[in-house]
Amino acid sequence: MLEISDLTVKVPTAHGNLPVLNGVNLSVKKGEIWGIVGESGSGKSTLALTVMGMSAGIVTGSVKFRGEELLHKSSREWEKVRGSSISMVRQQSGEMLTPMIPLIDQVMEPSLKELPYQKEEAYQRAARLLSRVGLGESFFYRYPFTLSGGEVQKALLAMALVTDPELLILDEPVSSLDALTKSEILDLLEELSDERTVLVISHDLSTVARLASETAVLYCGSILEKAPTSSCLQTPLHPYTRSLVRAYPTLDGPRELQGIRGEFPSLSERPGGCPFHPRCTQSLEVCAREHPQSAPAEVNSGWFLSCHRGGVIELLRGRGLTQRYSLNGLNGVPGSSGSSYLEAVSGVNVSLREGEVYALVGESGSGKSTLGRILAGVDPPFRGEVFFQGTELRRFKGRAKKELSRDLQMLFQNAGEALSHRLTVSELVAEPLIIQKIGDEQSRREAVCRSLEWVELPTNDHFLNEYPHHLSGGELQRVALARALVLEPRLLIADEPSASLDASVQAKVIKLLLHLQNERGFALFLITHDLALAARAGDRIGVMQAGRIVEEATPSRIIHHPGHPYTQSLLSSGFTLFNF
User: Fold this and answer.
1) For the chain, which has fewer Cβ within 10 Å, the N-terminal or C-terminal residue?
2) Which residues touch 207 (CB under 8 Å, ≥6 apart)?
3) CA 510 to CA 489: how far, in whole Å?
4) How many CA atoms lie within 13 A of 458 on its CB side?
5) Rounded mean pLDDT of the chain?
6) Is the pLDDT reported for residue 564 higher than 90?
7) Would you say 140 and 101 are in contact if contact means Cβ atoms under 8 Å apart?
8) Based on C-alpha coordinates, what's the Rg of the chain?
9) What does the domain layout of the chain look like in residue ranges?
10) Given this chain, do its domains 2-85+165-268+298-306 and 357-380+395-578 carry the same CATH topology?
């Protein structure tokens, strides 16, 4: 039905002709409903206007409708297509209707082009459509300025459908409506879009999830991901799509909102290479140099990604992890005479993706801290393997092992025990830099101050020269966090980072930790006994019982549809306390 190939649209600016769309490719079959999502400025509306032949920019590439090229059509030829074969409901609904012309006359207008001598038939078409969208006879001769926003949107929908177009383009069809009116319009769109080819353009992910079967993710004029809608929004593979989903508020999930790190670039400041690389947590040198080609994703034949790394990469994996502690000094070896051992972790498989927050929850003694120490490389497992970026931890030797400790840091449960009380704050935060032989004294001091500023602590000489026993529990925890972040790691394993703090300080520390995770872009493996905290913080939650991960899912699924009896017991014991 619609074939878009290498579509580029440039607009004249003070900096020359700059691309709003850059090499867009999209194939839409008859009867498909595609969603186009992305931040404001991504080029969504420009794409819609170009397909309608209304772009004000310099257009190159190809847009074919039923195999016929649209970009080369004259104005006269466009009159036969626009509004009849292809219709559009535009974004600023209030500006699309003439204030002083009765509603039915405006809805009739597109069909009068097809039926110039059959005004009665055009009237009947318009009347049927208006009634179908919920604007009965009492609305026919009302003026647009007497209508509510939802009623205007319904009228525009009737106007777009009155010629029975083959392709319908909806540009932000419900963005300015209240929740109830939005739901009513979406119900209507679902009904009217049946067996029709539709492009739904929106920054509202719930609208696209409701209407579209396929979704394309647009950023700075480039499509970065194309996939079936449910898969794309539930398990996004591209770092940008994941960031979009994280930033969207839903009633279904308890997770805290996160903005997308960095700033959306203006048209004159768009980078070369992959347009998302300055905001991406896993960009490489090639990402800044070359624009990625769209290629099929490994997980699904209908899934396409534009990413040099093939989407969000796996950063850490634990496979078959088991940890045993001897109870009688015989190393816990089974079969030894009188052997006795405690199996704290038993055959655990776990993974963590780049930039992800994984929350591990369970009661005290379930093996959470032991698993965290194994994953951090602090303790070797009795059995099993830990891989960091595909390399088993035991293979890191010498310089490589030293560099690994830059990327992989651990924040221990009790900061008072983990930090030496013989060192000042400045010395504690600088120590990892000294061990790694990074920088000179001046650059280390700058790095220390920068890290302390990240965790919202003072950087004056008085505070820098304080000792740990002079600090409050909250300050001590932040110093430990600054020490862990001073090397700018790619993965932080945080073991109960706020368990010993009062509720007010705990909230500040956790909010700070999640803010830093988002802004600095590191992956976070968060260990906690608090299921409510895990649900607010995690992209995924793992539930651990007696050394095993018994359930793993998204926060929404864990909270609303727990699958394991132990998870259900955690939920009932954790939340009944707050049923005042």
Assistant:
1) C
2) 35, 173, 174, 182, 186, 200
3) 18
4) 9
5) 86
6) yes
7) no
8) 29
9) 2-85+165-268+298-306, 99-163, 357-380+395-578
10) yes
Query: Do residues 221 and 22 lie in contact, with contact meaning Cβ atoms separated by under 8 Å?
Result: yes
* Count of other CB atoms within 10 angstroms of residue 193: 18
Q: How crowded is the C-beta side of 1, counted as CA atoms within 13 Å?
A: 19
DSSP count for the chain of H helices, then E strands: 21, 22
Taking alpha carbons only, the member of 359, 369, 361, 410 closest to residue 255 is 359
Strand ranges in 272-336 using DSSP code E only, listed in sequence order: 294-296, 304-306, 314-326
- Give the mean pLDDT of 87-116: 78
How many whole angstroms separate alpha carbon 36 and alpha carbon 569?
41
Nearest to 468 by CA among 412, 500, 431, 421: 421
Q: What tens digit of pLDDT does each residue of 178-222 get?
A: 778 778 888 888 877 777 899 999 888 888 988 899 999 999 999
**C-alpha angle with apex 145: 139 to 146, nearest 5 degrees?**
45
323: its two tokens: 């940890």
Asked if pLDDT for residue 252 goes beyond 70, the answer is: no
Model pLDDT for residues 446-464, shown as the tens digit of each residue:
999 999 999 889 999 999 9
Please name the CATH architecture into which domain 357-380+395-578 falls: 3-Layer(aba) Sandwich (3.40)
Q: Is the pLDDT of residue 577 over 50?
A: no
DSSP 382: S
Question: E strands within 229-356?
Answer: 294-296, 304-306, 314-326, 341-353
167: part of which helix (H) or strand (E)? strand 167-171
pTM for the whole structure: 0.84
For residue 580, the model assigns a pLDDT of 40
Q: Report d(CA 298, CA 300) in Å as an integer.
A: 6
Q: Which CATH entry fits the domain spanning 2-85+165-268+298-306: 3.40.50.300, 3.30.465.10, 3.30.460.80, 2.30.110.10?
A: 3.40.50.300
Distance CA(551)–CA(559), nearest Å, equals 12
- Separation between Cα atoms, residue 435 and residue 439, nearest integer Å: 11
CA–CA distances in Å: residue 249 to residues 186, 245, 254, 320, 518: 18, 9, 9, 36, 16
| Token pair 């074939």 in the structure block, residue | 3
CA separation for the pair 484, 488 (Å, rounded): 8
Is 50 exceeded by the pLDDT of residue 60? Answer: yes
Coil/strand/helix, residue 565:
helix
Give the model's confidence band at 296: pLDDT under 50 very low, under 70 low, under 90 confident, else very high. Answer: confident
Residue 48, SS3? helix
The model's confidence at residue 575, banded by pLDDT at 50, 70 and 90, is very low
Residue 44 makes CB contacts below 8 A (sequence gap 6+) with 36, 37, 38, 171, 201, 202, 203, 218
Token code pair at residue 523: 């992956």
Buried/exposed 470-501: b ≥16 CB within 10 Å, e otherwise: ebebbbbbbbbbbbbbbbebbbbbbbbbbbbb
> Residue-wise over 387-425: b if at least 16 C-beta within 10 A, else e?
bbeeeebeebeeeeeeebbbbbbbbbbebeebbeeeebb
Q: Report which of 488, 481, 344, 328 is spatially closest to residue 418, judged by C-alpha positions.
A: 481
Averaged pLDDT, 526-553: 91
